[in-house]
Design goal:
The protein is α/β, with parallel strands linked by helices. The protein has a single domain, classed as Vaccinia Virus protein VP39 (Rossmann fold, 3-Layer(aba) Sandwich). 36% of the residues lie in helices and 22% in strands. α5 links the parallel β2 and β3.
Amino acid sequence: MDAVANNINEQYAAKAFSTQSTVFDEIYADNTIVSYKRDRVRAHVLQYLKPNAYILELNSGTGEDATFFAALGHNVHATDVAAGMQQKLREKATKQGLGNLISTELCSFTQLKELKNKGPFDHVFSNFAGLNCTGELDKVLQSLPNLLNNNGVATLVILPKFCLWESLLLFKGKFKTATRRWFSKNGVTAHVAGTYFTCWYYNPSSVINAVKDSFEVLSVEGLCTIVPPSYIEYFAEKHPRVYSRLKRLEERYRFSWPWHFVGDYYIISLKKK
């Protein structure tokens, strides 16, 4: 995909998520597995954050993570291409008394060279597959070293090309959903609030190969590999004992092959060389 088409795709994605910005938090507030995912990602990031870190967040959304890290005393520069999301983030930061620790900037992660605030940052963070909205992830990754301090860390949460739980939907007759990642070389059409855009899937090996000259891999862990994805609604509520058992299993095997790359997402942390 060329740069112009890629930018148009991001604009469509931004439009879709901006439309949902006023209700985004409410939709997921009571989703047990969404809360589980956030807790897992945050725990992963916190093990690499130094005190009073300066964080660049890509596709920051409504600021659920930005406000979490700011409340711990970190400074966050939150970027997004969705104006509605950024407005919601600023309102949230002000309401929580965190405006002095959070700054915002409308900027695509494919155009990080145009960032007004270039840091340098201690940590770059992107949650819940925002980076899957580009077919040029390698270009995004290659722009990160110039934004990071020496030994700075990037933590990215990305959708891989295979999800075990998703594939099991074949047995429910949901062929299109079950196989959408299998045939995604040229991207797959997704939609939010009636707006369509393209989504790509990337295995950890693609990320590692793209940054091998500038980053070393700290860790890769699967997320919702054994625990079901959050779109399998009310699983935790309907099957609490099974859910607890699956969480324990995922905790045990999340770094192991093949579980670290067959989940709904994986979390990868990279340290600048």
